[in-house]
Amino acid sequence: MNVQVVDLPAPVGSRRQFWQHFVEMVVVMLLSMAILGAVVSTVFALAGHANLLHYTALRGLLMTGYMVVGMALWMRHRRHAWARVVEMSTAMAVPYILLIGPFLAGVIGKALFLAVMHVLMLPSMYVAMVLRRDDYEQDHRHHDPRDGEPVHH
Questions:
Q1: Nearest residue to 28 (alpha-carbon basis) of 72, 85, 80, 79
Q2: Contact 73/82 with Cβ under 8 angstroms?
Q3: pTM of the entire structure?
Q4: Which residues pair with 150 in a beta bridge?
Q5: CA 131 to CA 117: how far, in whole Å?
Q6: How many CA atoms lie within 13 Å of 140's alpha carbon, on the beta-carbon side?
Q7: Is 80 contained in some domain?
Q8: Is 129 within the bounds of a domain?
């Protein structure tokens, strides 16, 4: 019996897929921030540090970490390459890195620091995605399960 392997054309990227990736990551980030935040707050409370999260710089760092962890796990689940995960994680940390100095110097207040940090995360993610448009415009099924790179035939 002769089996012929047919090479399918590379899938065409779409804006719909791009925005689906973006929305998925935002939803996962919010969920992970809520879930991991509750777990960490409980652990701190049990250790006698219930008010630890009133330290705004630490709170911003933890919130960024919660979102990065959730997003990274989701991206790997969706078969993105480790390089894309690292790029996106870095993009998500940029707002914290940019704002922590002005916050610690007293230039911006607590509420503004946290609000702007969260708001800036979205355009930062968008830029990371636009720079790798081929990856984010592909259906997840078209990422190579071995390394997460888009499969181009």
A1: 72
A2: no
A3: 0.77
A4: 143
A5: 21
A6: 13
A7: yes
A8: yes
Determine the angle formed by the axes of helices 110-131 and 15-46, rounding to 10 degrees: 140
Mean pLDDT by groups of 10 residues along the chain of 153 residues? 51 80 93 93 83 79 95 92 94 97 95 95 95 85 56 45
Domains contained in the chain, number: 1
Q: Alpha-carbon distance 17 to 24, whole Å?
A: 10
Q: The domain containing residue 110 runs over which residues?
A: 15-134
Overall size of the chain counted in residues = 153
